[in-house]
């Protein structure tokens, strides 16, 4: 990004509140169309990141009901935020 994010882009957002509750819908089906979460999404161990999945059958995309949970993988030596970091992220901040 040319300009950095503002504090409020990450801190005390609805997404952080969902992470604290342990469940974030990254994608979902809305009237037959895939919708996706917009904003800064923290990565935290123990949080369930939900996605909608489809299968292509006979020329049609069919919603997969109750798909198995995907395997978590942290690429590029990345590590999830700690609980302490998540608590700090939940606090409103200003410059």
Oligomer: single chain
Going by helix content, strand content and strand pairing, the class is: alpha+beta
Spatial gap, N to C terminus: 19 Å
Query: What sequence of helices (H) and strands (E) makes up the elements?
Result: HEEEEEEH
Order of the strands making up the biggest sheet = 1-4
Task: Profile the largest sheet.
Answer: 2 strands, parallel
Compile the SSE list and pairings:
Elements: H1 14-21, E1 23-25, E2 27-30, E3 33-36, E4 48-50, E5 54-57, E6 60-63, H2 83-89
Parallel strand pairs: 1-4
Antiparallel strand pairs: 2-3, 5-6
Structure description:
The protein is an alpha+beta fold and 95 residues long. It has one domain (7-89). 16% of the residues lie in helices and 23% in strands. The protein has helices spanning 14-21, 83-89, and strands at 23-25, 27-30, 33-36, 48-50, 54-57, 60-63. The strands form three sheets. The protein has a two-stranded parallel sheet with strand order 1-4. It has a two-stranded antiparallel sheet with strand order 2-3. A two-stranded antiparallel sheet has the order 5-6. A hairpin with a 2-residue loop joins β5 (54-57) and β6. The protein is elongated and about 55 Å long.
Features:
two-stranded parallel sheet; 95 residues; 2 helices; elongated; alpha+beta
In short:
By secondary structure, this protein is α+β, with helices and mostly antiparallel strands. It has 2 helices and 6 strands.
